[in-house]
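User: Here's a chain of 201 residues. Predict its fold as tokens.
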Amino acid sequence: MILQNFEQLTNAQRQMFADTCNKLLACGFLAKDKKDNKEQYYFLLSFKTYFDEYFDVIGYELVMDRERGAIQLQSRGSANLLKLKKDESLILLILRILYHQHLVQTSVNDNVVITVDEIHQKYDALELKKKINKTDLVSILRLYRKYNLIEPLGDVGQSGTRILVYPTILMAINTQSINEVLDTIAKIVNHQGGAANEEAN
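Assistant: Prediction complete.
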């Protein structure tokens, strides 16, 4: 059916379809409020049946949260999972905790904004023998920017720099309770959980 209907799309729509599919396969998430996601987010809503059929064929499904403006491309199997190192896992979980903490103080129509310094404070509170250095943190934050989870609003090498955290973080760390996030951090810190595998693709 998709091939028959695809012929009815304009060249521009076909190109947008291809670009959106490629972005989802590369990044795993779309955030409505991210500037370079917005057009593709709304295009996907308008042509969702096309995307559903296409991704179904290759073993993926779309998970949507329209209220928050977030979309995730989820693999039905264990293929294409992003394997995270210990620090990458911890920073992702810290971002999830900070999102939760700031959400209660944020207006419904506003995005959650944190600072680099807050990430450092949360990480230091874990009292690990090895502190995370600036170079590693910058690299990790760039990784999560690539996956449309955050958007730094300046130089992430500076402690006061603000970071916009998108609702896609709720899909990356899919849990019903913030206590589950804290438990996961404790396991990693105690070397019981090892490096986490998060579904980012």
